[in-house]
Amino acid sequence: MISGKPLHEPIVEHGSVVGDTGGQSSFVMNTQEQIDNALKRYYAGKVGYLDAANQY
Questions:
Q1: Along the 56 residues of the chain, how does pLDDT read in single tens digits?
Q2: Residue 40 and residue 42: Cα distance in Å, rounded?
Q3: Most CB within 10 Å of its CB: which of 14, 30, 45, 50?
Q4: Which of 23, 21, 25, 24 minimizes the C-alpha distance to 37?
Q5: Residue limits of the Pirin C-terminal domain (predicted)?
């Protein structure tokens, strides 16, 4: 992000800069627990799944 309103809340980051992930996941959340849950969902295949059979 180049500019925006300050969030005034904690930020926890995991992974690489957006656009340069090198095959790693990138997440920005408010707590480490949220990061851990996002990683569990990511590795379980529950993030970003598209059901191609039902798209059209």
A1: 578 888 788 888 877 555 555 555 677 888 889 989 988 988 888 876 666 666 65
A2: 5
A3: 14
A4: 25
A5: 2-47
